[in-house]
Design a protein that fits this description.
This protein is α/β, with parallel strands linked by helices and 256 residues long. The chain has helices spanning 52-55, 62-68, 77-83, 99-102, 117-124, 135-138, 202-207, 213-219, 223-236, 248-251, and strands spanning 2-3, 9-12, 25-28, 33-37, 40-44, 91-93, 113-116, 143-146, 159-161, 168-172, 181-187, 190-194, 241-243.
Length: 256
């Protein structure tokens, strides 16, 4: 498992972690991860497309665009993949379907996507999309749906064994979106959980703090369920390394 190259930005802690004022600023970035398994190499959260402002951010409400617009030097997923040595990727696996976890697919039109069926139905059904910047990235491509129909794992109520060997297990992290999942992978240094946006920063997990009301209340689909999921993460934090997709420092613990 490795994190693709990305440029961090310094953001006010008070906009990320509810009620936390120190340190005053923390590093935040739009991360993507590559996992290599004997059966396949895949990307988790293809986060940024080329020309992201016009192709994805423009579809967001103005009140949200102000908070989430990426800096100009943000590295597109396709660019970071081309820099990576080794083979290409066989499929994408988003932790959830918000623009900054799927819009990198716009530059990878032939890449299949493994997607939690509940999440797919939430974002693709109906005449009006529940969130912006997502449908175009998923429309017309190969979708491999899966269910979380496996047993509880650690503190998580349902699961899906991706390859059937226990090395990569998808777990339920609902709340931020209805079908949010985490990717629990066995690595050379132990278990790692890619937690998507169940938390934006590990301080939330350690301190059991929700996302800040703005923009968190606009981002979480079910604030109460998201808080329950955060408690599950806190309960397991000493057994697995938890990496939120936007926590730049936490991701640096992974191999380059």
């Amino acid at each position: 498992m490795s994190a693709l190259r990305q440029v961090p930005r310094s953001v006010p802690t008070a906009l990320i972690v509810e009620g936390l004022r120190q340190p005053r600023r923390i590093a935040n970035s739009l991360l993507s991860f590559v996992i290599t398994h004997p059966e396949a190499t895949f990307i988790v959260d293809p986060s940024v497309c080329l020309d992201v402002d016009s192709r994805a951010v423009a579809e967001l409400p103005a009140v949200l665009r102000v908070a989430v617009r990426p800096p100009a030097d943000t590295v597109a997923t396709i660019t970071a993949l081309r820099e990576r040595s080794g083979s290409g990727v066989d499929f994408a696996l988003p932790t959830h379907t918000h623009w900054d976890h799927v819009c990198g697919l716009l530059d990878l039109p032939e890449l299949p996507v493994h997607l939690h069926r509940r999440e797919h139905d939430w974002v693709m059904q109906g005449s009006v999309a529940p969130v912006g910047g997502v449908r175009e990235a998923l429309r017309g491509r190969g979708i491999v749906p899966y269910e979380l129909d496996g047993p509880p794992v650690l503190t998580f109520t349902t699961s899906h064994d991706l390859f059937g060997d226990g090395s990569v297990v998808l777990v339920d992290l609902a709340g931020h979106t209805p079908g949010s999942i985490g990717v629990l992978a066995h690595t050379a240094t132990g278990w790692v959980l890619l937690a998507g946006d169940a938390a934006w920063h590990t301080d939330q997990v350690d301190l059991i703090r929700q996302k800040a009301g703005y923009p968190g209340a606009l981002a979480d689909e079910d604030r109460h369920e998201a808080f329950r999921t955060l408690h599950r993460l806190h309960a397991v934090k000493d057994r697995v390394a938890i990496i939120p997709t936007h926590d730049h420092i936490a991701a640096q613990r992974l191999p380059a």
